[in-house]
Write a structure and sequence with these properties.
With 153 residues, the protein is mainly beta. The protein has no helices and ten strands. A four-stranded antiparallel β-sheet has the order 1-2-6-5, with no helix packed on it. It has a four-stranded antiparallel β-sheet with strand order 4-3-7-8, with no helix packed on it. A two-stranded antiparallel ribbon has the order 9-10.
Length: 153
């Protein structure tokens, strides 16, 4: 959608990633044509039932400008999360940026847990076992696919 404000003043390259089960980082770059005093503010809504709330821990770039946000205790639900970044400047109106993101698509999964390898000589072979990675939203372990890379010396 087109919002009021200077063309090229909205943030660019918005991207978020979830890691360690419940932590999330979102980052962005200032708009190409944003005035030098522009400051950006992120608001998000995790699901339709949640209230929209502002970022609690901004990542600061040069000149103290907000260039990202760190989140704790993020739940991955079935709804798309809504993100909105607006800006303010003394002299100009700054364009909004907004996006809906399905949080499970941006999660970096932790490695599988409790990996063990038992090798025997007779018959020569190894049994490798593990448990699924920790995640906040997947209950079905059948959803995971694994790849084992065995390197002989």
């Amino acid at each position: 959608p087109v919002f009021a404000g200077i063309n090229g003043s909205a943030i660019e390259n918005f991207s978020c990633v979830i890691y360690n089960v419940s932590l999330m980082n979102c980052t962005w770059q200032a708009g190409r044509d944003a005035p030098g005093d522009t400051q950006y503010f992120l608001y998000w809504q995790n699901s339709r039932d949640d209230n929209e709330k502002e970022c609690e821990l901004y990542i600061k770039g040069e000149n103290g400008r907000n260039t990202g946000c760190r989140f704790k205790n993020v739940r991955i639900g079935s709804d798309k999360a809504y993100f909105l970044v607006n800006g303010s400047s003394k002299d100009s109106q700054i364009q909004l940026y907004d996006e809906y993101i399905q949080l499970y698509k941006i999660e970096i999964l932790t490695p599988p847990l409790n990996i063990s390898v038992n090798c025997t000589k007779d018959p020569a072979g190894c049994i490798i076992t593990w448990q699924p990675p920790r995640t906040s939203h997947l209950r079905e372990v059948t959803c995971f696919e694994y790849e084992i890379s065995i390197q002989n010396k």
